[in-house]
Amino acid sequence: MAARAEARPALHRPLSPRTSFRRAVPRRSAKVRPSADRVDRIHRIDQIDPFSSADNGSPKIFSAPGAPEPGGEALIVVGGRRLSGTVAVSGSKNASLALLAGALLTRRRVALRGVPDIGDVRQMLALVESLGAAWEWRGGCLQVCAAGLGARSRPHPVDDAAARSLRASFIAVGPLLARTGVARMPLPGGCAIGPRPVDITLAGMRALGARVAVDHDSGWVEARCDGRLRGGNVALRLPSVGATQAVMMAGALADGRTVISNAAREPEVVDLAGMMRKMGARISGPGSREVVVDGVGELGGASASVRADRIEAGTLMAAGAITGSGIRLLGIEPENVAATAGLLERMGCGVARGEAGGLAVVPGGELLGADVVARPHPGFPTDLQPVFAPVMAAARGRSSVRDAVFEGRWAHAEQLRRMGARISVRGDTATVVGRPPLGGRPQLKGAHLEASDLRAAAGLVVAALAAEGLSIIHNLHHLDRGYDGLDRKLASLGAEVYRSAEWAALQPGSTESTVQPGL
Ligand code: EPU
C-alpha cells in the first residue's frame, strides 16, 4: 500500500509539540511548601546535624553515598504526628496513561481533565510526542492531538528512553498498529516488581492478524499488518490490564468484531472504554470478563475526565489507619476502593461514605492483624499490598499477604525490617507479626530507607508516619513517578515531612540506621 501522509486537522491554535509541561502547568517547587506555622519546624530541621551523636550516646554512623542520584531528594518524615482534615485525591495515574495511549487512535483532538502532574505522565507525554502527537496543557486540561502520527506502514520514531521507562508504553502497540499498520516499540520497563512479560498483548495482536517479531537481543518488538486488522476471538491467558487495553484499542479500528474473553475488569479498562466510546468506538462489556468491540473505520476526538486514583486513595487510607487518625478523602468513589475498605474494616478501622461524596477513615482503637490476597480487580489491589504491609506491621497479631498478581513484589520487606517490622517472605506470601505500640510508644523505629519502586516508596512513607523518630527515604523519584504531591497532601493533614537534596546525600553506615534527631 502506498504511504500516505495524514493531513493535520484544523485547530483553533496549533498545539505546539514543544509546549513545555512546566510552562503550561503552574510551576510547583519540588520542595514541600511550608505553611507559615511550619517554618519554625523547618528551620529546626536545618539545624539537625546528621553527623552528630545520637541521643543514646552512640555515634550515628553515616557514610558518603556510593552513587548519589544527581539532583535527587530524600523525604524526611518525623513520625508520630496525628493526621486530621480533608484532602482531595488526584486523578488516576494508570487511567491517565491509558487515555494518553487512546489519544493515538485519532487524528482529532482529545481533551483530558484531571490528569495528575507526575513523572509517569511526563514520560508518556514524551512518548506520544515522539510518535508525532502534539500536546498542551490549557488550565487543568491536557489536550493531545495525534494528527502527526507516522504515515501508514512506515515505522514511526519512538522515544526509546521514555518507552523503556514505562510499562504503559507498550499498550500503544494497539493504537499504532490499528492506525498505521505498524508498531515498533521497545520492550517496556516500569517498576521492578518481578517479571512483566508482554506475551499476552502480542498474542492478542496476532489474533487480530498482525505479524509480530520480537528481537530479544535489541529488546525491540515489531508488529505489522497489511491493510486493516481483522476482528477475532482473543482469549487472554491472564486478565492482564495492559493486554485488555491494547487489544480493545486495536479492535476498535479493526475490520469486524473482536471478543476479548478473560478480560481485566479494572476501572482503568472501563475508563479507557468510556473515552473510546465518546470517540465513536463500539464497545460493550468493559468491566466484565468479556469485552466485545465492533471495529469502525475512524475515530473522532473526545473530552474525558480522569477519575480519582484508587491507589492514592488507598495509600491515604493506610496513612490514616496507621496513625490512628480520622481523615476525609474527596473525589474518590467508595465503590472503587471497596476491597481496600474491606481490609481496613477487618483490621478494626472504620471507613464511612462521606456526606458530600468521598469517604472518611474512622479509627476504631487498636489495629488488628488480618490476612489478605492481592488479586485482579475487584480483589484487593496488588499496588496496595506494599502500602498495607506497614499497617500490618504496626497492628496487633499476625497477618499474611499473598500477592497473586506479582509474586515477587517484596522489595519493601527488607526496608520495613530496618524499622523493626517482623516480616518474612516465602514465595508469593509475606507473614507479618505485628508490633503494635507499647505503652503508647510505637515499636516501629525511624530509619534510613531506600525506595525500590513506586508502591514500595509509598509503603515506606506510610510506615515512617507511625514510626518513632525520624526516617529518611531515599530514591524519591520512585514516589514522584506515580503520586501527585503525596508528601504535600500528608503535610496538609498535619504530617511532618520535608524534602531535602542535602539529606539525600547521606547514607546509613552498616551498624546504625536508626536516626533519633531529638526534635
Ligand atoms: N502478564 C503476563 N504477560 C503479559 C501481560 C501480563 O504474563 O503479556 C502478567 C504480569 O506479569 C502479571 C499479570 O499478568 O503477573 C498482570 O499484569 P497486568 O498486565 O494486569 O499489569 P499491567 O497492565 O502491566 C497494570 C498497572 C500496574 C498494576 C497492574 C495490576 C498500569 C500502567 N500499570 O500493569 O500498576 O499493578 O496493572 O493491577 O496500568 C502501579 O501503578 O504501581 C502498577 C504497577
Structure description:
- It catalyses: phosphoenolpyruvate + UDP-N-acetyl-alpha-D-glucosamine = UDP-N-acetyl-3-O-(1-carboxyvinyl)-alpha-D-glucosamine + phosphate.
- Pathway: Cell wall biogenesis; peptidoglycan biosynthesis.
- Its main location: cytoplasm.
- Residues 79-489 form the Enolpyruvate transferase domain.
- It is built from 17 helices and 25 strands.
- β12 and β13 form a beta hairpin.
- The protein is α+β, with helices and mostly antiparallel strands.
- The strands form 7 sheets. It has a 4-stranded mixed β-sheet with strand order 22-23-2-24. Strands 3-15-17-16 form a 4-stranded mixed β-sheet. The chain has a 4-stranded mixed β-sheet with strand order 5-6-4-14, with helices on one face.
- The structure holds uridine-diphosphate-2(N-acetylglucosaminyl) butyric acid (EPU).
- Uridine-diphosphate-2(N-acetylglucosaminyl) butyric acid (EPU) binds at residues 93-94, 97, 167-168, 191, 195-201, 238, 240-243, 264, 266, 268, 382-383, 405-406, 454-455, 482.
